[in-house]
Amino acid sequence: MASHIILPPDGDDDEQQRREDEENDGGGSGSGGDGEQQQQGGGNAKAALPFSAMCVRISRDSYPNLRALRNASHASLTDAAYVKISEGDFGYVLDDVPHLADYIPDVPTYPNPLQDHPAYSTVKQYFVNEDDTVPQKVVVQKNSRRGVHFRRAGPRQRVNFESDEVKACIVSCGGLCPGLNTVIRELVCGLAHMYNVNNIFGIQNGYKGFYSSNYVAITPKTVNDIHKRGGTVLGTSRGGHDTKKIVDNIQDRGINQVYIIGGDGTQKGAYEIYKEIRKRGLKVAVAGVPKTIDNDIAIIDKSFGFDSAVEEAQRAINSAHVEACSAENGIGLVKLMGRYSGFIAMYATLASRDVDCCLIPESPFYMDGEGGLLQYVERRLKENKHMVIVVAEGAGQDIIAKSIPASDQLDASGNKLLLDIGLWLTHKIKDHFKSKKMEMTIKYIDPTYMIRAIPSNAADNVYCTLLAHSAIHGAMAGYSFTVGMVNGRHAYIPFYRVTSTRNKVKITDRMWARLLSSTNQPSFLSQKDIDEAREADRLANKPPLPSVANHNVARAFDQSAATSSNGEI
User: Fold this and answer.
1) Binding site for Mg(2+): which residues?
2) Of 50, 153, 202, 284, whose Cβ has the fewest other Cβ atoms within 10 Å?
3) Which pLDDT band, with edges at 50, 70 and 90, does 42 fall under?
């Protein structure tokens, strides 16, 4: 059932509205349960709300500046029909995902074919309980509220599609990433082997393939060994998203399950596709599998392919270390991927232990003067006779822009084209030591496109399999969502939650402190930088407040912002 917002009346009814809100929120009874549930079940209950068990009443006292709240929220009033928030005892909030039953009355259900599958007959409790949820925050104190939860992923006892009626399609969008072929393979094999689905199609070359290419029939046999290769057998592209054309083709071809693999921009596109499908009342489930080599997708623990990328990045770092050690005053400089988030650079540095300096987009640095990068490089060479520098591609863009005219060009995904920080640093370091009349050798290694083109390693292969299977189970059960691992458990996450913010390295966390301790590099930060970083972390971590939220929900969302699910260990 769709969520709605009930706006409070103007005038003299505000105080009465506030008192009713407090009682419905559990302030008087201590239960903390959902307002309408109390109305239906208790002797002290107020009159039932006029419509929808999912309604949430917002009082003006809860939000003195409701208009500003609406404007600031990424989940705007226009999206209220797609947001499902429900509450429980002790501050429990479920940020739920939409279901076919929200807009298709009496949608039929069927027994899950897995109950007769011989491979799963020995599993004691294979089906997920409908009430199972996954908390966004697991580190709590004894008086903490239960906070925000997501619906647990996994097979349901009842499904909304019969095997013979399923017509599924799979599309991959955006840049390459280790594990893409594994996800495609496991989606195909999972649909065929677990749910006996025979009609599975591949969409070629990203979103534009929905309306500019023929659909390709794919079977377990055709994808049997693609996981051993990098890239994507379906092809990919950036941009090309035309919601109306895409949904027109989905409708014309009778597709009823859409599996979309891609980053935050791709998941935004999946959300738009879902909204158009719902407007048309189509019986179609949309399942997003988040993909980004930078590991910058919000909410989830990590994205698939990240472990493989870090492992391959170490090979480049090892090569840089060999080059640096083999020359007098040798410097090995490695540029790794990380447009907005420096996770690959940070984890590869920590894993290597051969790195003397790591530069990422989240941590500002400066070149000249006391405590600057050039002074540190000079000191390190005098001490060790060699050093290794790792830099993420998005680091130092503000510094480069001061010496090189910045371009305002965008790629097809709308990302600003970056200046080459690795090449710029190479020239700046050379010029510095030339002015000092000090001999040195610098080797610049850029393995970025080599890293993203490799096949996934064993750990990522397993992770890709679990993501694909979770996506299949959710789509068969009629949900539309982005799937991901949250605190070690797979969950179904609303589209708006993974597209409204970006996961970034917290330079005020212990993990970054561990890196500084490992490399012995200066932080390059003033106290002002640290304070600004803390505030930026707080704001970036704060999830968008749904416009259907009351003050209990708002508190739960604020609590979930205290730590991210992929934060420090």
Assistant:
1) 264
2) 50
3) very low
